[in-house]
Amino acid sequence: MSIFRVPDLGEGLTEATVVTWHVAVGDEVALNQVLAEVETAKATVELPSPRAGRITALRAEEGETLDVGAPLVEFAEIAADGDAPAGPADGIGAADGIGAADGESAADVARSADAPAPEGTRGPRRQQVLVGYGPKLPTTGRPRRRPRVFETVAFVGRSAEAAARERPAAMPPVRRHARDLGVDLETVHGSGPGGRILREDVDACAKGGTATCPAPGTTRSPSACSDTVRPDTALADSAAKAASPAEATTAQPPSAAPASHRIPVMGLRRATAAAMTASTTAPQAAVFHTVDVTPTLKRLRRAEQEGRRTSFLAAVCRAVLPAVDRTPLANARFDAGTGEIEQFDDVALGIAVATDRGLVVVRVPTGTDEDAPAHTGHLAGGPALTARIARAAARAREGSATPAELTGSTLTLTNVGVFGVEGGVPLLNPGQRVILAIGAVRTQPWEHRGRIRLREVVTLTVSFDHRVLDGAEASAFLRDVADVLADPGLLLTR
C-alpha cells in the first residue's frame, strides 16, 4: 500500500484545496493519469499519479483544504509481471520527497529515475518525483493537522467504491459555483447530457426551483432542494399554517436581522485577503496624472490598419520600462529584516488579470528574447508584447498559469479602465512597491496648442511604498510614463 501526499506546488504555497476528483476508490490508474484537480493560492493544478496502481482510499473530500505533505490518495501498486500488489510502505518522514510514495525518499527516487531495472527484479518500480514540483525540503516545527476521520452517511448499504462512483457529475466551475451558493450537489438533478449538473441547475436549486428535485428512482438524499425544503420558505409555510385566524390578520413587525448567507473563503480569495491585510504594513501613497494620449492612439490605429496590432496596455508597458531606467527605485523593494532597499537589475513586469477566482498577477516577458529580461536585451515590439499579454491573461483566466508565472513580478500594471472607471488607487501586494493603474480612455474637451479641442485622455495612478520612493521620485516616474504616451516619439531617445 502506498500513500501519495500533496506535493509542493510552488514557492510559498503551503496548502491546496481539492476541487474535483478524477478517480474513485477501486479505479486502476496509469502512470501520470490525472488523480485530482486542486486549487492553490495561485492557480488550479492537475495532479498526475506518480505510478500505476489501484485506488484504495481518497483521503480528502472535494472542497477540503490540505497542507503540503498531507496524505491525499492511497493505492495498491500493480506488479508488472502480474504478481500481487506490493505490501505496505507507509512511513514517510518530514524530510521525504513530497509527491513520492511513502517509504521512498526524494533522493531514492531521483537516483533510480533514469536507471533501468535489472532483469528478474520484482516489486514496485521507483518513479520520478512529480514533474515540476520537486522534492520537499525538510520542514521541522510546522504543526501537523490532526488525522481526519471520514464517515459515509449518505450511502448506507453500499460499498465505498459504489459511493465514490455515484458522485454527481459536474464541471469544476459548476462545483465552485455550488460551493459559493452553499448548494449540495448530491441534492441536485442534472439536466445536462448524461445527467451532468449545469450551472442553471445549481442556480435553480439555490432559488428553490422544482426542476432540481432528484429524478424518480434515484438514490439521492431525500433532502433534495425543492420549494418545500428551503429553510426560509419551509419555516415561513409552517409558521403560517400554525397561526390562528386572529394571528393571520395581525400584521407582524419585520425581523430586525436581515436575511443573509455565508460564503466560504478559500484558495485565491483567502490568499488575496491575507495579502491585502499584509499590505497595510507598508506606508502607501499615491500620485495621479491625466494625460492626452491622442498621439499614441492615432499611431496604434494606423499600425492596426497595416496589420500590426498593438494594444494600449502594451503601449503603456513600453512606456514604463524607459521610465524605470530614469527612476530605478521604481523597481525596488524595502527589506524590513535588514532595513535595506533591494534594487532589482531587471524589470519583471506583472499584469493584473481578473478571473472567476479573483484577481491574479501574471508575469509578462518584455524583452526581444521572450526568455530574457527586457534590460538584458532589446524591448519587445508592440505586436509581440500584445500577443504575450493576451497569452498570459488567457492562461491566468483558464487557471493553467504555472506558479512561476504567477510570482516574482517586481512592478505591476492594472488596467481598471476595462471596467469602465476613470481610475482607482490600487493596493500593493506584499513584496511589490510600485503598481500603476490605467483608467478608461475618454474623449473630453482639452487644451491643445492654445485651443480647446476634443482629445482622448486617460488618468494614470501610481501607488508606491513610501519607504522606497518619496513623492518627488514617484511623480517623476509617473510623469515619464505620461510623457511617452503623450509623445510616442520619445521612445526613440530614451
From TrEMBL:
<feature type="region of interest" description="Disordered">
    <location>
        <begin position="210"/>
        <end position="261"/>
    </location>
</feature>
<keyword id="KW-0670">Pyruvate</keyword>
<dbReference type="InterPro" id="IPR036625">
    <property type="entry name" value="E3-bd_dom_sf"/>
</dbReference>
<feature type="compositionally biased region" description="Low complexity">
    <location>
        <begin position="233"/>
        <end position="260"/>
    </location>
</feature>
<dbReference type="InterPro" id="IPR001078">
    <property type="entry name" value="2-oxoacid_DH_actylTfrase"/>
</dbReference>
<dbReference type="InterPro" id="IPR003016">
    <property type="entry name" value="2-oxoA_DH_lipoyl-BS"/>
</dbReference>
<dbReference type="GO" id="GO:0016407">
    <property type="term" value="F:acetyltransferase activity"/>
</dbReference>
<protein>
    <recommendedName>
        <fullName>Dihydrolipoamide acetyltransferase component of pyruvate dehydrogenase complex</fullName>
        <ecNumber>2.3.1.-</ecNumber>
    </recommendedName>
</protein>
<dbReference type="GO" id="GO:0031405">
    <property type="term" value="F:lipoic acid binding"/>
</dbReference>
<dbReference type="GO" id="GO:0005737">
    <property type="term" value="C:cytoplasm"/>
</dbReference>
<feature type="domain" description="Lipoyl-binding">
    <location>
        <begin position="1"/>
        <end position="76"/>
    </location>
</feature>
<dbReference type="InterPro" id="IPR004167">
    <property type="entry name" value="PSBD"/>
</dbReference>
<dbReference type="InterPro" id="IPR011053">
    <property type="entry name" value="Single_hybrid_motif"/>
</dbReference>
<feature type="domain" description="Peripheral subunit-binding (PSBD)">
    <location>
        <begin position="169"/>
        <end position="206"/>
    </location>
</feature>
<keyword id="KW-0450">Lipoyl</keyword>
<dbReference type="InterPro" id="IPR023213">
    <property type="entry name" value="CAT-like_dom_sf"/>
</dbReference>
<dbReference type="Pfam" id="PF02817">
    <property type="entry name" value="E3_binding"/>
</dbReference>
<dbReference type="InterPro" id="IPR000089">
    <property type="entry name" value="Biotin_lipoyl"/>
</dbReference>
<feature type="compositionally biased region" description="Low complexity">
    <location>
        <begin position="103"/>
        <end position="118"/>
    </location>
</feature>
<dbReference type="Pfam" id="PF00198">
    <property type="entry name" value="2-oxoacid_dh"/>
</dbReference>
<keyword id="KW-0808">Transferase</keyword>
<feature type="compositionally biased region" description="Low complexity">
    <location>
        <begin position="210"/>
        <end position="219"/>
    </location>
</feature>
<dbReference type="Pfam" id="PF00364">
    <property type="entry name" value="Biotin_lipoyl"/>
</dbReference>
<keyword id="KW-0012">Acyltransferase</keyword>
<dbReference type="InterPro" id="IPR050743">
    <property type="entry name" value="2-oxoacid_DH_E2_comp"/>
</dbReference>
<comment type="similarity">
    <text>Belongs to the 2-oxoacid dehydrogenase family.</text>
</comment>
<feature type="region of interest" description="Disordered">
    <location>
        <begin position="103"/>
        <end position="144"/>
    </location>
</feature>
